[in-house]
Amino acid sequence: MRMPRGLDCKIGRLCATIGLAALIGLTIPYAHAAGGLSISNPDGAAVRALVIGIDDYQHVRKLKGAVADATDIVTSLKSMGVDDVVELTNAQADRASLLREISALVERTRNNDLIFLSIAGHGTQEPERFKGSEPDGMENVFLLPGFETTPTGSVERILGSEFNHFIRQFELRGATVIFVADTCHGGGMVRDIDPRAAEMSFRQVPRYTLLVDELKPVSDSNDPKSELDLDHTAFLAAVDRYTKAPEVRIPGIDGLRGALSYAVARAMEGSADIDHDGKVTLKELFSNVRQVVYQLSDQRQNIVTISSPAQMPETDVAFELTRGVVLIQGPAARAASGQTGAAAPEGQAPAPPAVAAKAPSVPTLAAATKELPTSAAPTSAAPTSLRPAAPIRLAALDGKTNYFASVTPKDVTVQAVQPTDNPDLIWDPVSHDVIAWGDVVAYGVDVAGLPMVVDRTAAIRELKRMATRSPQMMRIWPDDRQQRAGQTVEVDLSDVSSRAVLLFNVSGDGTIQVLYPVGSDAALARSASLRLPLRVGEPFGAEQVVAVTSQQRMVDLETVLMQLNRRRASGQVIKSLQHYLPADARIASIGFFSAP
């Protein structure tokens, strides 16, 4: 154990533990081709889907992204070659229509089919109808557009046990089921929302009392008592039974969305195939979706995954991916993806990379305030500047826009909006705090300092987009609550054996802080996990811990990061990643928040 260092810095590095080395492997990238990637059933039968999305509730609070979630999933399935896809949105998703379509899907189902069910909308809980069927005595319920607490409106809901009834019907016909529930049924949160923030949208309504309940549940004697009584079904739920599921911002997409639905759509398009073997196991599906949701929600959302007791997630294949062309490797694939250097002959591991002179050990790190001068930028970085298509939407808490006339960031444009117009950032002209999506990004920032916070926001948006494409598994412990001065958080990377690891932080004002490798740290991970404790210090606000891993040491990128260390250079980091990122790179980008 090393002695603590960096105790007076923004995030103080405490220690890192890393085990013994193994041989470096080779990740083979898919060749992109006309006709694209297709999803297929590992048993050779059909893939069928029923996808539901509801925003337009008539008697309870409307949602903003559930229909877009359904459309996204349907588009992904169809683009991946799935023909039997039924979509029900808003008024189409009344109880009679839903029961009719799911019953028809049961009738079409054949032995070994793969059935995909998805619902995005409001959820809640009611007392269980069958005593002992739920661990807390409460049953999950999915609300439909016409639901209200009147006798007629009580019919417009679907019980969790009813979905289990139909899933059992699919299983009895020999099918395997993947069920995605992008709703929430509980009402708790770990990290509080700053009261100055714009109103957040959650997929949950308060519990209610039905004086007259006209719902007549669909059931029979074969129905399972719980999800664990099913045999061939995998469940992915947005949150646990006690937590709210927020609608989140997705980089590059207007409006709000459900992080789970978005992650599932990308997983089906191929991002969950971590080892690029054309087979997505349940473990790969669960791990990929869990990490993407965790990243997109800034730790506010931890999905729940359940597989049937008879299933073996590490080996059971959820679905397969096929192309019209063979896989390729070597110079052609590497050139297409921007990776340089010689490739090993097919079937052989690559030669160990040349190791550049070791960077000097980083001394005790201090809170950096120096901005990166133009002359200090690496000359070999990508020549184009970071210029995302969408501007950063900036609002003042009092609604005035004249504060921002002189705000001219380097890397992105600014659009002045009202606090009610879905801003990316809200600036408090009294305290000078900057708030984003319920969290304080930076404390005490005057107008002259806003451009750096805006540039940092654009950079984090791009980092999240990169991390969604090929995520590296990473968690921050102990939880997502706001961390206080002097507390220790632990960064935990998994599945990094024999991979090169770069770890850095982007502070609320855009300051870069290299966390790994530092000093005598091994460039290649020697065990499956890497744990790095960090101590929290000022300045307080948003932290974005970023991990980049690859099967070969990223010498150029490592050098650039050391040049940017302790400088306000969030935009330069993005350009450097775009230029030097190897084809097999995995990225994690996790936000957490600190306060005095």
From TrEMBL:
GO terms for biological process: proteolysis. It holds the Pfam family Peptidase_C14. This is Caspase family p20 domain-containing protein. One of its GO terms (cellular component) is cytoplasm. InterPro entries: Caspase-like_dom_sf (IPR029030), EF_Hand_1_Ca_BS (IPR018247), Metacaspase (IPR050452), Pept_C14_caspase (IPR011600), Pept_C14_p20 (IPR001309). One of its GO terms (molecular function) is cysteine-type endopeptidase activity. It comes from the Bacteria. Residues 49-126 form the Caspase family p20 domain. It comes from Bradyrhizobium centrolobii.
